[in-house]
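ARCHIVE CARD
Drawer: 12
Card no.: 0347
Subject: one protein chain, sequence and derived structure
Cross-reference: see card 0346
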Amino acid sequence: MIIAITALKGGVGKTTTAVHLAAYLQQKDQTLLIDADRNRSALIWAREEKLPFYVASQAGSTALIRKYPHIVVDTRPCRSWMSFGIWRRGAIS
């Protein structure tokens, strides 16, 4: 399962939500949190605290993706919903 935490602007709690969701999912099975935000807050928090899941940068996550059944992605702010490419898959009408 891959879950992306997204928002149109910064400062709305994406990283906090991603960390809490990853901690919950880790109780079920191995979880990877990919920090794709430019601030790299999740990576900083992972260095400072003992998180129960693995945190990787977007660049360093490619080799890890197949090893984790749960993946949470902390994304950077987007300017529009079309930036996500969701409209092509019909998730947003």
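Annotation on reverse: Confidence is low (pLDDT under 50) at residues 86-93. DSSP finds three helices and four strands in the chain.
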